[in-house]
Each structure stands twice: as structure tokens, then as C-alpha cells.
Amino acid sequence: MNKTSSKTLFLSMTIMSTLMVLSSSNWITIWMGMEINIMSFIPLMYKSKNSLLSQSSMMYFLTQSMASMIFIIMILVNMYGWNNLYKNTDMNMIIMLSMMMKLGMPPFHMWFPEMMNKMNWDMCMMLMTWQKIAPMYCVSLSIQNNMINMSFIALSTLSGAILGLNHTSIRKIMSYSSMNHMGWIMSCILMYKKLWMMYMILYSVMMIMFSLCMKKYNIMYINQLNIKYIPVMDKINMLIMMLSIGGIPPFLGFLPKWIAMEYMIMSNEIMLLLMMTMSSLITLSYYLRMISYLSMFMSHSQKWNFLSLNNKKNNMYMFYINMILPMIMLLMNFM
């Protein structure tokens, strides 16, 4: 009972701290909300005596603390009017770099895949979705449309695409996929401020569904997609989710990328859009590699893994959610 109540306390503190950041009107309260978020997320992560979890919690604490120190120093510089040391654009750039360190974006990404590989799917799901909302909100407040930020967006999308090619751990692959999506979200912030919220919501829905599906069958590596017995309908759901996360039309994941492309074409950012689109095509290669294992529906499943053969329940909710996009396109044509 005590363990459950403490987990509820820290989970509610994690949620409330992010809401505190989103509703703040000055930088100090944003910093306070982020510090509460760090201190409430670490106990959730370290819920059992495990050397891997202790390493990941220490890695998370050190990285986030370093980023928070840079952030609070820039806030104090701005508050006490030391403008002769730094220009306003320089301060915004340093604040944005500290947030990129919190998000695990290139070139500050080395901690993120290693930490993801040491955690269970529940914590991976939180780290890829909820924990990115507050830093991304700070990025939206401080980002400026210049060549440096464009370079960071291109680096994030390309690094997330290329570095994920050489891994068989699904958690590491999803961490590099998250870097690629963070680059897309930053481009949404540059083109149209409100667009990143829609992208973040749709991305979070897809990642939550994917993480819950991987948790259900305790899948950590690509070869386990073929070894474990998974019902055919669940395999089809996984296949649709992977194509949706990759941004293939007509699935739901294509919608935010489609809108981001339209705004980037309107802003005449053709070269950046070309690099981001090419990187998204590269990410499809490791989704297709996972799909190739799933596509062998029943051929290599072992007899001793037929434990849920009599389970007739089909999880259709993932299929319905990922097929919302054609209905949205149909409604847009009628409007």
C-alpha cells in the first residue's frame, strides 16, 4: 500500500509540475516546475533495486541538473540586467541549447538512447512523451528563425535517422526515432507556434499505443517479434502503428508531417524540408525491418509460445485510431 501511494504521489507531482511550466508567466517558475519534474520522475524510475535502473536514474539526474544550471544562470543574467555581457539573442540561444540537452537532441543526445535501453516500457513511454512537453514549451518561447536553429533541426532529423540503422534494440530504435520527431516539432515551432502542440499530441498518442503493445508481449529486441507468439490481429495493429509512426499515408502519423510540409513550403524553406523528408524516408528502413519480422504471421511461431491461442479478443482500438486520417481528409474536402 505504501509503495502504491508513493508511486501515485510522484506521478501526480510529475503531471502537476509540467502543468505548472505550461501555465507559468516568468522564467523562474518555469525553472521551479522543471526541477520538481526531475525530482518526481527519478523515484518513479528507480522503483526496484536494479543496477541498470540506478545507472539510468543517475544519468538522468546529472544530465538534467547540468541543463538546469545553464538555464538558471541565463535567467539570472537576464533578470539582473547584465546585458553588456550577453546579447538577448545569445541568451535565447543558450536557453534553447539547455532545453535541447534536456530533450536528448543532437549533439547532446548520448545519454538518451543508453538510458532508454536500461528502462522498462512504462518509463520509456513517459520519457518519450510527457517528459518532453515542458522543455519543448521552453524551446517555443526562446527559439528564433536563424541559420543556427535550422542547422540544429537538420542535424536532429538526420542523426535520428542514420544512428538508428545499426541497432536491434527496439527501445534504442525508438529513442532515435524520437530525435527525428523532435526535429520535426522544432520546425513546426519555427513555422507556426501552435502547430507543435498538435504534432506533440499525435506523436504522444502513437508512442503510447506502441509502448503498451510492446509491454504487453515484453518485446525488447527485433528478433523477439518473430519468436514470441502474437495473435494475427495484434500483429496487424503493430504493423499499422509502425507505418503510422514512420509517417506513411493514409495513417494518422502522416497528418502532422503533411501540415508541417505545407507551412515550410509557404515559408520557402525548401532545402530544409528536403533534408527532413529524406531523413524520414531513412527512418522507414528500420520500421520496415521490424515489419519484415511481423509479416511472417504464423510461420516461425513456436508451439510452446501458443499460450494466448484461445484468446479471441481483438484490440481494434489501435486500428481505428490510426485510420482516422482518411476520415479527416474526407471532412476537409467537404468543408
From TrEMBL:
Location, primary (coarse class): mitochondrion
Pfam short name (any one): Proton_antipo_M
EC number(s) recorded for this UniProt protein: 7.1.1.2
Location in or out of the cell: Mitochondrion inner membrane
Residue stretches making up the NADH:quinone oxidoreductase/Mrp antiporter transmembrane domain: 24-283
Annotated function: Core subunit of the mitochondrial membrane respiratory chain NADH dehydrogenase (Complex I) which catalyzes electron transfer from NADH through the respiratory chain, using ubiquinone as an electron acceptor. Essential for the catalytic activity and assembly of complex I. Core subunit of the mitochondrial membrane respiratory chain NADH dehydrogenase (Complex I) that is believed to belong to the minimal assembly required for catalysis. Complex I functions in the transfer of electrons from NADH to the respiratory chain. The immediate electron acceptor for the enzyme is believed to be ubiquinone.
Protein name, entry field: NADH-ubiquinone oxidoreductase chain 2
Organism the protein comes from: Trigonotylus caelestialium
Gene field: ND2
